[in-house]
Amino acid sequence: MNRIKVGIVGTGNIGTDLLFKVQRSEVLECGIFAGRNPDSEGIRKAQELGVSTSVDSIKAIQDNPKCCDIVFDATSASVHQQNAPILKKLNKYVIDLTPSKIGKMCVPAINMRECLKVSNINLITCGGQATIPIIAAIMKVHPDTEYIELVSSISSKSAGLGTRMNIDEFTQTTRDAIEKFTGVKKAKAIIVLNPAEPPVLMHNTIYAKIKKPQLSKLKKAINAMAGLIQKYVPGYKITLGPVAENGRVTTMVEVIGRGDYLPRYSGNLDIITCAAVNMAEAYAREKLLGKMGKRL
Amino acid sequence: MSQVLFFDSTLRDGSHAVGHQLSLANIKNYCSQIDSVGLHTVIVGHGNGLGASSLQVGIAAVTDMEMLKAARKELKRTKLGVFLIPGFGTIKDDIQPAIDYGADLFCVANHCTEADVTKQHIEFLTKKNKEAYGVLMMYHMAPKERLLQEALKMQSYGAKGVILMDSAGASTPDMVSETVSYLAANIEIKLGFHAHNNLGLAISNSLVALQQGALIIDGTLRGFGAGAGNCQLEVLVGLLLKMGIASELELYRLMDVSENVVAKIMKKPQEITSLSLISGMAGVFSGFAEHVRKAAERFKVDPRDIFMELGRRKMVAGQEDFIVDVAMYLASRKGSEKESYDIESLL
User: Fold this and answer.
1) In chain B, which residues have their Cβ closer than 8 Å to the Cβ of A196?
2) Beta strands across the sheet bearing A248-255
3) CATH fold of the domain at B274-340
4) A to B CB pairs, distance under 8 Å
5) Which residue of A has its CA nearest to B326?
6) Closest partner residue to A195 among B113, B318, B324, by Cβ?
7) What CATH architecture is A126-266?
8) CB-based contact, B328 to chain A, within 8 Å
9) Structure pTM?
10) What is the least distance, in Å, from the CA of A91 to any CA of chain B?
11) Chain A: residue nearest B311 by CA?
12) Which residue among B87, B273, B325, B347 is buried most deeply as judged by most CB within 10 Å?
């Protein structure tokens, strides 16, 4: 089968995990793996896999635009500010894994189709990916939900410098995305880092303030949504609930990573790379079908 | 002793003891009475800091900004302080508004190994010429060398001091002595200590901290605070006087506010319950106590077992959601295996 080429910019943990997932894909292949640090472990792994690498970062794609149709940006918000207009000019489909907030906010289980029609999509935050679909399911059963609160706890080891230096952006972006996607009147996001060894799994608690919760309906909707997410994030699991007391409905979600490049406890990173590759595959399938259509 | 700064967390930590239900009248009354006592700062706001009013840790009766407004009017000589944990509160939603409401002093807190998440906030405050301090919570969970690394980070961000918070009241006097002397000798800024009384040592540990070079003592009147409560400031001041160490605090005035104001706000005397003792032994955040008691009742398990399991899982401040998780786990386990409180897990 034909494959669509992807470029990965940023050869850190996220970029390298993306590479491993792309290698497994039936419709994607990595055309260029580009970063800045020649000594990065990611570059070494890519070379071992026989993938073209570059230390010219975005310039590698500018110099050879045919190397890919899809670009994953796994750099940082400020670098993506510079990369976005360049990639737009080159007419690439851009999947942004930084918190730049430039592209259309994307949660595959909710708005995949719309996100295939634009040229730059943004994957929000790990907490957002893990909980927005569930919150949307809750809101569908209970549009009368007054308030939603998310508490994400992640292991210190899986919280990179980017998350740490931008912890305010993490909570604010996640909250804004919850409100925008689900229509709830008021939301709050809390993040807690836990340094325990062995590292804790990514854990999310969703509280919903609902006067008279219909628990069986909620349970059905939540489990159905979890099933959808499990299709692209195999380690996604509802670990508790929904349970209710005093008008507070609690649901807990745990994400175990696939352990591709990143360790299994870093489900917070896996959920973002899984969502990114899922979108790239959907885009690639459309493109491949389109090509076939032309030939017919 | 004149260079020692006394931070008053009565209204902030005490908020835990009354389920975050302090009223504006409580705050106004307290601030008007305490203003002339000689404290460096009175810290006001939700027990878990600005922006922490939530289903996770408790919804406060009044908003942080209403509290700040009420306190600001009454505090003329004492600095109006606030506390904030990044991850709960943010610069945009909480710090900037607090500055606008007239807060003078900011304690930016995080788990003791995660100081880099306070960089954004401490640097912002330093730029705004505000007095900012770093707080390392649950300090008992990290070795002193690591604590020093984290304190040095806060120093590099511009913090005026670093406060070690014994959030679980899990310190022995030896731990305090060793950690405080090591840090005080190796940082350039002031070192502070915030004690909890789970093991009956809040005053004693604060004294040890002072003797080993701490220059900030963070405590509360009447010990009003989370779990077993805090270092009871008037008692510490009395002890210091007895030892011939003068401080700038007026003992009789502190006693009067303690008797006439704080005693009336408190719902019950601050005592070391079995649950608080267990929390100190397990090294679990003192603020969990009320949540643990409720979860134990609901799932019919021993609250002490919940504390021990939370300690085994190394839960940090802010992870109150795991209390229900642990209670359910214990309840489900109870069916197959009858197990009581197991002291071995401590050793």
Assistant:
1) 313-314
2) A187-194, A147-155, A202-209, A248-255, A236-245
3) Helicase, Ruva Protein; domain 3 (1.10.8)
4) 88
5) A240
6) B113
7) 2-Layer Sandwich (3.30)
8) yes
9) 0.90
10) 36
11) A196
12) B87
Q: How far apart are the C-alpha atoms of B307 and B169, rounded to whole Å?
A: 13
Distance from CA of B303 to the nearest CA of A (A): 19
Is it true that A4-123+272-295 and A126-266 share their CATH fold?
Answer: no
What's the CATH class of domain B5-265? alpha beta
Q: Give the start-to-end residue ranges of the domains of chain B.
A: 5-265, 274-340
User: Does the domain at residues A4-123+272-295 carry the CATH identifier 3.40.30.10?
Assistant: no
Write out the two tokens for A257: 């990573």
CB contacts of B111 in chain A (<8 Å) are 192-195
- The predicted-structure confidence for B248-300, as pLDDT tens digits, reads as follows 899 999 999 999 999 999 999 999 999 999 999 999 998 888 889 988 998 89
Indicate yes or no: CB of B87 within 8 angstroms of CB of A164.
Answer: no
Cβ <8 Å between A171 and B314:
no
* Tokens standing for residue A246: 């005093």
- Say yes or no: A209 contacts chain B, CB-CB below 8 A: yes
Q: Which residues pair with A147 in a beta bridge?
A: A209
The tokens describing B206, both together, are 């604060």
Nearest partner of B260 among B66, B12, B34, B47, judged by Cα: B34
* Nearest CB to A167; choose among B55, B117, B319: B117
Side chain identity at A21, as an amino acid letter? Answer: K
Domain ranges of chain A: 4-123+272-295, 126-266
User: pLDDT tens digits, residue range A208-252?
Assistant: 999 999 999 999 999 999 999 998 888 899 998 898 888 899 999
| DSSP assignment string, B215-260 | -EEEEBGGG-SSTT-B-BHHHHHHHHHHTT---SS-HHHHHHHIII
| Interfacial B residues in 85-104 facing A (CB < 8 Å) | 86-88, 90-93
The ipTM is 0.89
Tens-binned pLDDT, residue by residue, of chain B (347 aa): 558 999 999 999 999 999 999 999 999 999 999 998 999 999 999 999 999 999 999 999 999 999 999 999 999 999 999 999 999 999 999 999 999 999 999 999 999 999 999 999 999 999 999 999 999 999 999 999 999 999 999 999 999 999 999 999 999 999 999 999 999 999 999 999 999 999 999 999 999 999 999 999 999 999 999 999 999 999 999 999 999 887 889 999 999 999 999 999 999 999 999 999 999 999 999 888 888 998 899 889 999 999 999 999 999 988 988 998 899 889 888 764 444 333 333 32
Shortest distance between the Cα of B318 and any Cα of chain A, in A, equals 7
Cα nearest neighbour of B121 on chain A: A168
Q: Which residues of B are catalytic?
A: 16
Q: How far is CA B188 from CA B99, B120, B178, B321, in A?
A: 27, 21, 18, 38
H-only helix segments in chain A? 13-24, 41-48, 59-63, 77-89, 108-116, 126-141, 161-165, 167-182, 215-230, 267-295
Catalytic residues of A: 126
